[in-house]
Amino acid sequence: MTDAQHYDVIVVGTGAGGGTIAHRLAPTGKRILLLERGDYLPRERDNWDSTAVFVKGKYRAPEFWFDKHGNQFPPEVNYYVGGNTKFYGAALFRMRPEDFGELRHHDAISPAWPLSYEELEPYYTQAEHLYLVHGLHGEDATEGPASAQYAYPPVQHEPRIQQLGHDLEKQGLHPFRLPIGVNLTPGRSVTSVVATVGDRGGEGSTAEFGADIVVVACGAVNSAVLLLRSANDRHPRGLANSSDVVGRNYMRHNNLALMAVSKEPNDTRFQKTLAVHDWYLGSDDWEFPLGGIQMLGKSDSEQIHGEAPRWAGAACPDMPFEVLAHHAVDFWLCGEDLPTPDNRVTLDRDGGIHLALDVDCKAHDLDNLYVVDTSFFPSIGAVNPSLTAIANALRVGDRIADRLR
Questions:
Q1: Are the C-beta atoms of 141 and 108 separated by less than 8 Å?
Q2: Considering the domain boundaries, does residue 147 fall inside one?
Q3: Cβ–Cβ < 8 Å for 89, 272
Q4: Residue 276: C-alpha distances to residues 258, 292, 329 (Å)
C-alpha cells in the first residue's frame, strides 16, 4: 500500500452519522477519506413523481433481504450519496430524557444508555443549528431542557393543519409544531471495508486503503453486515465481535401510517408540520409508554393507489383515489421497539443489530474502530433517530479530534 492510499481517518458511509463526523473532523486538517456505495442521486423530475418513487420504487436499492422464515422482501434502503438521508422526512426530534434511562414497557424493559440526556444535550443544540432545524423549544411538553433555542422559527401550518391543531387542543391535547430540518447532502453508503471500483455493470477491481482510525457509518443493518463480512483469522466472528453481539438486538420502530378521510377537503401542500406527544410516556388508562404521533407528507392518488390494500376499491366504490387523496389527512404513529438478542442481522438470511462499543462508540476489540450511526443505540425511544445520530457523531468527532492532535 502506497502512502497515497493511507489516511488519518477513513469514514465508511456519509449519511447522518458519517457525513456529520466528517464535517466535524474536517477542520483538523487531517487526511480523511470518505468511502461510499452508489452514485449521486440525480436531480430529475422523477424526484417529485409519486408513481416513480412510491409505486415503481425507482430509487430503492435493487436487492432483497430475507426474514427468519427465508421469505425475501425489498428493504427500505437507498444506495446513493447521502444514503437514506436523501429520502428521510427531516423530522429532527430529540429523544426524551426518560429515553436515556431504564423504561418499563408492558412486556419488557427498554435499557438505559451509558450516556445521560444532559451529557448529549449540548450536542443536540449544535446538531439542530448545523442542520438548520426549524422549531420552538417549549411547545412540546415532553421534551427535555434545551441550552439554546432553535436557530430558525417553526414551519407554520397550512390552514387545514392549523384547524386540526385547534381541534386537538379542544380535546385537551397539546399539539406542537414539528421540528424539521433541511435535507443537506451529507454523503453515500458502502458495504465493504475493501471497496470495489470499476465501470458500472463490470466486474470492477479491488482497491485497498489504510487509515489510523476507521469510522463505520453504514446504517444499522449494513454496519453489522460490514463488520461480519470482515471476519478473518484474528477475528473469526467478524470485527469487534468477540462478544457475539454484532448484529443482535436490532430495533426498528413499531410504525404505522394512518390515513384519515376528512369530510372537508385538505388542500395542504406541505403537511408535515404537527406532532402530538401527550401519550409518549403513558396515559390515564395505560401506565406504559405509547409513543408519538406526527403528520406525514401529504398523500396523493398515486401513493394511495400504490399502497392501498386490495379491498380499498371495493370498500369505496363511489370515491376514486383522487377524491380520497383530496380529503386525506395523513399521520405517522411511532412506538418503541425493544432490543432482543434473537432479533438480529446475519449473513445467511435472518434479520437484525447491536454493536460491542464503549461509551465513545469505539469497539472494545479494536482501538481504532468507531461506529457512529444508529447501530450504537442501546434503545431507540419513539421519535425519529436522525438527530440523536447526528448529535452523537458530533460528540464522537470531538473525541477523535482530540486523539488526532
A1: no
A2: no
A3: yes
A4: 14, 6, 15
Instruction: Round to whole Å and give the CA distance between 130 and 184.
Output: 10
Assess contact for 211 and 396: CB atoms under 8 A.
no
Together in a domain, 262 and 297:
yes
**Residue 86 within any structural domain of the chain:** yes
Check if the beta carbon of residue 62 is closer than 8 Å to that of residue 74.
no
Half-sphere exposure of residue 144, counting CA atoms within 13 Å on the CB side? 19
Domain that holds residue 111: 3-133+180-253+340-404
Domain assignment of residue 150, yes or no: no
382 with 246, same domain: the answer is: yes
Q: Which of 127, 172, 131, 163 is nearest to 146 (CA)?
A: 127
> How far is CA 208 from each of CA 10, 197, 222, 230, rounded to the nearest angstrom?
12, 10, 20, 13
Which residue, 195, 192, 198, 194, is CA-closest to 218? Answer: 192
CATH code of the domain in which 215 resides: 3.50.50.60
Residue 17 domain flag: yes
Q: What pTM value is reported for the model?
A: 0.88
Supply φ then ψ for residue 283, to 5 degrees.
-145, 180
121-140: per-residue pLDDT in tens?
A: 999 999 999 999 999 999 99
The shares of helix, strand and coil residues in the chain, as percent rounded to the nearest 5, are 25, 20, 55
The per-residue pLDDT for range 183-242, each reduced to its tens digit, is: 433 333 222 233 233 334 445 567 889 999 999 999 888 888 888 888 888 888 888 778
Q: How far apart are CA 85 and CA 390, in angstroms?
A: 11
206 & 218 share domain:
yes
Angle of the 386-404 helix axis to the 18-25 helix axis, nearest 10: 30
C-alpha to C-alpha distance for 222 and 343, rounded to whole angstroms: 15
